[in-house]
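Thread: quick sanity check before group meeting

JM: Hey all, I'm pulling together slides for Thursday and realized we never actually wrote out the predicted structure for the chain we discussed last week. Dropping the sequence here so it's in one place. If anyone has concerns about the input, flag it before I start.
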Amino acid sequence: VSVLYWKGGPMSCSVTDPRLAFHATYFDVASHTTKEFLCVFYHGDQTIELIDAKAGKTFLKRTACPDLTKAHFFLGANIVVFGRVLTLVGYGDKVTEQLSERLSESVIAVVTSDLFPQIGTCLDIATIECGFGICDMQGTELRSADWDAPATSEAAALLPRSFAGKKVLVVHLIRDQALAKAQCLPDRFERPSAVWVASTKQEVEAASALLSLAHRRPSATFAGGSSVVVVKPHVVSGKRGGEAVQALLDACPEVELAALSQVTFSTARADEFMQPYKGVLNEYRATVEHLASSACWVLQLVPAGRGGNGDAVVPVREAIGPFDPAIAKVLRPKSLRARLGKDVARNAYQCTDIPEDGEEDAAIIWGKR
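JM (edit): ok, ran it. Output follows.
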């Protein structure tokens, strides 16, 4: 992404200036247009200002956004501002570029399905033990043809040929000195040969094509009987996302992982996903707002060894437990919502309730292809 500096007024001029400035885009579903803004975040008091890049006028006056922190702001990040998902596509000033490049170096990792039964633990190792943030992650299935296709051949050539024909999780990790720190990651996993990590900036740039491929061709299935599970924002931001994923996989040995993605919901998309509960759930609005507050992790689980039959919905729903964590702690104290939930809106997981809804839930998250 090219760096385009803001010309409309003074921006950060010192590393001690409590501002970060980024060029941001927002896709307006109603008008089918992409709008461009200068997004200025004042990390001292967690306020944000949006300037319409085309008109040069203030779109949103400086307003408090307590859910956002300095860690949310880096090139390529998706942030949620009052229900709108903004993508940070360029730096607004030189100081922001220098600070971000120093503190948010990128690396791409590819994990094969050989480690999917332990993927929650792998994510914990990366985020908690090694201090990485996850900018993006998406599952796909690599094909032999990807080694020859013009769009992916350079990236695929970096990977072991044994990855062909396997489902993989492509993860964009960030932190300071990310390239150097990431080289020890494979050895910390149970099967080091099931992980590839970029070792140079050139490899990171080439491997970004794998992430684009994964978004175009997600590994999700669109058959009935699958369970789509959202690990909610308070769990992910609280650095318990890996724990939540692994606890669910361990509690349901009869299912396996088909897809895993990091998703940032807009309010409209969260509302669409929660539609079956509208008019039924008293905390509906609070639940939608929480889903759209920051990044979620979304899993699709299917019956293990699936041959086109079976149902993952019931065992997953049973393991997660009652919708209200307060009730779960009394009636099902060993359930996952009892363990990780806080209240009805922040009940740790949102999952498919009936087998017939699995296909529609998957379509909302990954788009039927």
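AS: nice. The mean pLDDT is 90. The longest strand covers residues 19-28.
JM: adding both to the slides.
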